[in-house]
Amino acid sequence: MNYEDIDHLLPRYCEGLATEEECRQVESWMEESEDNRKIVDQINTLYIAVDTVNVMRKVDMEKALKKREAQAVVIEEMRRTGKIIPRIGKTKSPLTH
Questions:
Q1: pTM higher than the cut 0.70
Q2: CA distances from 67 to 61, 71, 82, 84, 97 (A)
Q3: pLDDT (tens digit, 9 = 90+) per residue, 5-21?
Q4: Which of 10, 21, 41, 47 is the most exposed place for a label (fewest CB within 10 A)?
Q5: Cα–Cα separations (whole angstroms), residue 71 to 31, 61, 68, 80
């Protein structure tokens, strides 16, 4: 397989967009050498890292932290006023006898 073909196929393969025939071509190329397999592994790792960064960008950490802090304040107030009883140790559920 020539370099230009594999250069075009690897991104499609790693993104899960390759056809069955393209997958067979890439997998055949990977079997040709350990270096080829390592290249595909590295590209896969990069795609996973990029996906992870994109997901992390969508999460508003400051908003999530403020929400958690507000929940903690409500729970603490409920404990303080006796509206919630803190659990001490593990209790058995009546369904788990």
A1: no
A2: 10, 6, 23, 20, 37
A3: 899 999 999 999 999 99
A4: 21
A5: 54, 15, 5, 14
